Structures are given as structure tokens and as C-alpha cells.
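Do me a favour: review this protein, sequence plus C-alpha cells, and tell me how the chain folds. Record follows.
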Amino acid sequence: MTHPEFQRLQQELKKRHDFPYRWFRKQNDQWDAFSNFIYQTETWEKLQNQIFFISKTEQLSKTEFFQYAINRWYNFHSAKAVESIFKNSDKVHSVLNTKDREKDFYLSGIPFDHKTSIFPKGFGRDFDYAQENKKELISWFYQNQSSQKRFHLKNRLFVVVYNEHGDHWKLKAELWLLKMEIDNYLNSFSPDQLLTISLQNENPKSDIIWIRGNLY
């Protein structure tokens, strides 16, 4: 992703911030199929047109489908940008099979999936505690991941976003902040810093890249 593309995407993603983060329903295969246009839709304006068209032709609640589609669009394109940040590093090599659900790239020869996650309320402890007890939070993420298509217990790098004023999800659009913190992590990366998590006869290696911001 080029510098201008990166800048344009950040501007488009931030247009989603004018609306609350609500789903109305659990993510499901049927509504995913209705909203799969999000993968090829990069601008907010085109997204609105697609949402209006599908909600009308499929007779869906416009309000509920609007929220569902903009959430998927926002999360997907932020994740795509994060993946491009990783892959621009000399330490990272792409996976040949782009449909591989268990890994996105190799970091220093180690296969990893990456996951950008908001700091979870369900963890039950504050951010400072999580930073001091990283392994505990990683275990929580593995145990509470979605049971949908991307469920696995393989190596994963978690990019955890935390906003001092709440609405942690808004940091997913701060692509330059994400890039700075991820680049810093990769520049000093050593396999020795990885944590081994024991789960259901699996022993994935994992770590957290912290993204802390101060947005209203």
C-alpha cells in the first residue's frame, strides 16, 4: 500500500466515527453474504450506495444492515492496512496461499496470523494490569475468540488498541499510529520475546503489540 493510498484509507475509515459502534445481531453467514461487497468497496460514499441497494432489494432493516455493513467494512479495511504494515518489513515474508486461515505471514521465519483487537471489557482487569500480565490477556483472547471461520489455536500476534476515553475501536482508523508502533515492535523483534500459550493440546507462540491513544 503506497503512502497516498494509506492516507486516503485513513480518511475514509474516520468517516465511520460519526456513528455509534453497534451490531444489533451476532455476525452470521447470511448477513455476511449480504454484505460481502465490503471487500471491494474502499470509499465511504460507495459503501453507502451499496448498503442502500442491498437493504432495499433484500428487504432488510436499513438501520440494522447499515450498522452491520459499516462495522465489517471498517474492521476489514483496517486489518488490511495493518497486514500491509507488517509485510513492508524486511523481517516479514508473505504466505503464498492468500486463503490460509491460520497464518498471514512469516516473521523471522515463524508463521503468524495477526489480529487487531480492542481492549476487552470482558477481561475484567484494567489496561495497566494487562500490560503487566500479558500472557493472561493472550490466553483470554484465544479462549474467547469467535467460533466462526477464522477460529484456530496457532501462532498469533495481537495488536491491541486502547483509547483512554473509551471507544477503543476508533484507534483502528489511526493508521499512522498503528504503523509507528508496529514498526517499532518489528525493528526490535526477537523470537525470544514470544510467549508460549498452552491450550487444548496446542502450544501457540504469541505476543501483543500495544496501541494506546487519547481520542475523543
